[in-house]
Write a structure and sequence with these properties.
Length: 235
């Protein structure tokens, strides 16, 4: 009986040792496919441009670190699918950001927004920028905005603010539109909690960050001019 007990004890010890080796291998093998599925390690058509924008080594070859950096950028701005692929939508978003940075404190350097109307809110669809000027003097901005997507573009041309509602509720989209200032039918400046670089865009309104929408509310009045020009990338 003692010999049988000793043999059973040795078998249990061997089985325990084998289990301790097998279990970690199973976990490792089980997690690898999930990681691969969540991050696209394929080199994208805008790989070098995206790498440079993100401060990554610019070699034009997708790595796991590249993928994770791209994926974090996509998640921050609501770019889907959030797979870390350097595709056209991701690069278009980054390129718009670069144009916005280049505008600096002289967004109307080309003189496209009228300077002979006194106070006016300018909206450049191409760079997704807006600012308020008085004549040629910059009063506020420039700030990033999110304008109408393909099919519901923000309409271009000269407008005037005709109605304001600080706590507006859209019965069309069933969403809150704080600091709404309407300038063309149902199109208005108003705040949103979405990223200003969230594609594909709004239903036609000029979305703004809450602080910017509040500043516009305090600076503008009914009858003030609005000038919309350019063309949003992707429309």
């Amino acid at each position: 009986m003692k010999r049988i007990a000793r043999r059973m004890g040795r078998r249990a010890g061997i089985a325990a040792g084998i289990t301790s080796l097998v279990v970690p291998m199973t976990i490792a093998l089980g997690t690898a496919p999930a990681q691969a599925a969540s991050c696209n390690v394929t080199t994208g058509p805008y790989q070098k441009q995206v790498e440079k924008f993100l401060g990554r080594p610019v070699d034009g070859r997708q790595s796991l670190a590249d993928c994770q950096a791209i994926q974090a950028f996509q998640a921050k701005h609501g770019i889907t699918p959030t797979m870390g692929y350097a595709g056209p939508v991701t690069w278009r978003t980054m390129n718009t950001m670069l144009q916005q940075r280049a505008a600096g404190t002289t967004p109307n350097r080309a003189g496209t927004c009228p300077t002979n109307r006194g106070r006016i809110a300018c909206v450049d669809l191409t760079r997704q920028l807006s600012w308020i000027q008085d004549g040629s003097r910059l009063k506020y901005g420039p700030v990033p905005v999110r304008t109408g997507k393909d099919g519901t573009e923000t309409r271009t041309g000269s407008k005037k603010i005709y109605w304001r509602n600080i706590n507006h509720w859209s019965t069309l989209y069933h969403v809150s539109m704080p600091y709404a200032q309407f300038f063309d039918g149902g199109q208005a400046f108003h705040s949103t909690t979405k990223s200003m670089w969230n594609p594909p865009g709004s239903g036609g309104c000029v979305n703004m960050r809450p602080a910017d929408a509040k500043a516009y509310w305090n600076l503008l009045r009914n009858g003030d001019d609005v000038f919309v020009y350019g063309r949003k990338p992707g429309t």
